[in-house]
Amino acid sequence: MAERPEDLNLPNAVITRIIKEALPEGVNISKEARSAISRAASVFVLYATSCANNFAMKGKRKTLNAGDVLSAMEEMEFQRFVAPLKESLEVYRREQKGKKEARKDKDKKADSEEQDKSREEDNDEDDERMEEEEQNDEEEVDN
Amino acid sequence: MAAARLSGSENRLVSLPLSRIRVIMKSSPEVSSINQDALFLTAKATELFVQYLATYSYKHGRGKEKNALTYSDLSHTAEECETFQFLADILPKKILASKYLKMLEKEKRDGEMREDNDEAEEEQDEDEGVGAAVGS
Description:
The complex is a heterodimer.
Chain A: H1 12-22, E1 28-29, H2 31-58, E2 63-64, H3 66-75, H4 82-111, H5 115-125, H6 128-142
Helix pairs in contact in A: 1-2, 2-3
Chain B: H1 2-6, H2 18-26, E1 33-34, H3 36-60, E2 68-69, H4 71-80, H5 97-128
Helix pairs in contact in B: 3-4
């Protein structure tokens, strides 16, 4: 599958924001510098992936897992990332777990005969001006 | 939601889009599949990398401007710092075209000198039968 060049680039706006938040206020970043950092980030992803994949292959696995990525960071001499990454991973896993449970609850409600009743209950909690929009949405969904 | 936007990316766990990160990862030929945690970690690591590259280059840059991060700060980092050396090829140093032309001319002259030296050495080797020290 051929990727277009843009697909291997990361969104400029996000990269710019990350840079700006890292540097002291008032520091300008030249367009060239921004573009260079963006390219460097893409190369970093490729390098990290390749490195992580080596660890997966050593473990005779075909799926890259979290441990492989963390090992890759050490290998690439970015040990400083390991602790913050582990912390973020904890939060991420909790978030994902919460989302899963929220979806399960939603599914339970949808399956039950109280489907329409629960939608009305949700509407009551919203602002009054949202109600009209909600009703319109409901019509579309029913169709 | 508005509150998260106002305070920037600090409230969100990761700003880089996982879908795009996945596309880049999958472009690597040997990779079959990527577990969701690994995808998240790669995205997060990339953000940390961007921050690190930017701040390091700003601190160690030899640019004349103190309130700007320039391309030359970045290419300097790629050349000088071992951790960032994997970027050396994509962040080459830039020189003026006139300097480059002078370099080419110098290399050409050095090359011709080396050829002359080699010929002289070959004659020497034939005489001595042992490799002589290379003179420049």
